[in-house]
């Protein structure tokens, strides 16, 4: 490996490497896509439209389970003893942040699959009519759809925030021991979930870039982005005003070399500024095309992906 690259990816104070950042990203995408899809579902129900026909909802059904299971798999493999992961399910340790994360993830995955069975009850009844037992089970699950929906939303919020709490388990790192971090990761997770559902609805389910659902998700994205910017400013101002090692952590993160470049170029410019510049300066004939909308989604996802890596690595560079 190039020595300069090795220096920013492997340093003396580093505890958790890049697989954790990917897990944080995937868990956030899953949680965010669920929250966005539930909002779209409510929107379609209000307008008397079939929920199962929505490209956004279909995209969530593809993204949410795959991303969270893949992320959990990466987390398990990265453990010192991955084959002993099951012990966390048997031997409870309520004082461990990792334990609560595993519990939330486990319940979240179960409720997610049950909720998807309720959402796509009508299409799945093709199997229900062929196999009566399956039909009875699907009808039973459908009856709990309303309650499951809000349980799933609460679990998605918990999962999104947990990705920030997980990093706070690394004691002695001022940038990571920040109360704003769980909220920042939750909000950026919603942002990535919105971008991912739009992207996959366009690519996999041929949703029109002008559809009501995508327009509705865009109305969610705008306040979410403003909130994310506000939280980022609050995050770093809190470190600066705290002084000492906290202020030094902020300085290293924002005015260092490699990781500060990642923040300003990928997180801020590519993930936040560039999409808005393109959206407002290019002609409507271009911005309304599916390819353009997909490109904006990729920029947004790049920004969130970079944010996870930036926080993880820059956060481990300064010790209190």
Automatic annotation (TrEMBL):
One of its GO terms (cellular component) is plasma membrane. Gene3D superfamilies: Formate dehydrogenase/DMSO reductase domain (1.20.1630.10). It is an enzyme of class 1 (oxidoreductase). It is a multi-pass membrane protein. Keywords: Cell membrane, Membrane, Oxidoreductase, Transmembrane, Transmembrane helix. Its main location: membrane. It holds the Pfam family NrfD. It comes from the Bacteria. Its EC number is 1.10.2.-. InterPro entries: Electron_transfer_protein, NrfD, NrfD-like. One of its GO terms (molecular function) is oxidoreductase activity. The keyword Plastid does not apply. The chain crosses the membrane at residues 20-40, 60-77, 97-120, 150-170, 182-205, 225-246, 258-278, 290-311. It is found in: Cell membrane. PANTHER family: PROTEIN NRFD. Belongs to the NrfD family. This is Respiratory nitrite reductase specific menaquinol--cytochrome-c reductase complex subunit NrfD.
């Amino acid at each position: 490996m190039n020595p300069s690259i090795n220096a920013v990816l492997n340093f003396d104070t580093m505890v958790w490497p890049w697989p954790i950042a990917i897990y944080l990203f995937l868990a956030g995408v899953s949680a965010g896509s669920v929250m966005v899809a539930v909002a779209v579902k409510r929107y379609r129900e209000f307008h008397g439209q079939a929920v199962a026909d929505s490209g956004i909802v279909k995209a969530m059904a593809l993204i949410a389970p795959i991303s969270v299971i893949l992320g959990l798999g990466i987390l398990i493999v990265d453990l010192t003893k991955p084959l002993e992961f099951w012990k966390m399910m048997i031997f409870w340790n309520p004082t461990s942040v990792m334990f609560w994360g595993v519990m939330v993830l486990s319940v979240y995955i179960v409720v997610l699959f049950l909720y998807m069975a309720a959402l796509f009850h009508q299409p799945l009844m093709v199997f229900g009519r062929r196999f009566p037992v399956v039909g009875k089970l699907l009808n039973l699950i459908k009856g709990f759809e309303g309650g499951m929906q809000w349980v799933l939303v609460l679990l998605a919020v918990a999962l999104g925030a947990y990705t920030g709490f997980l990093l706070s388990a690394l004691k002695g790192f001022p940038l990571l021991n920040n109360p704003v971090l769980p909220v920042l990761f939750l909000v950026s997770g919603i942002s990535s979930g919105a971008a991912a559902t739009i992207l996959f609805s366009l690519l996999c389910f041929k949703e029109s870039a002008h559809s009501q659902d995508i327009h509705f998700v865009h109305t969610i994205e705008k306040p979410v982005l403003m909130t994310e910017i506000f939280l980022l400013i609050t995050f770093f101002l809190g470190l600066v005003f705290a002084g000492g090692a906290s202020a030094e952590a902020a300085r290293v993160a924002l005015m260092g070399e490699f990781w500060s470049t990642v923040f300003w170029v990928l997180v801020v410019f590519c993930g936040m500024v560039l999409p808005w510049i393109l959206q407002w300066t290019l002609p409507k004939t271009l911005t309304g095309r599916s390819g353009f909308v997909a490109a904006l989604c990729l920029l947004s996802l790049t920004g969130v992906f970079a944010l996870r890596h930036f926080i993880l690595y820059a956060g481990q560079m300064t010790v209190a």
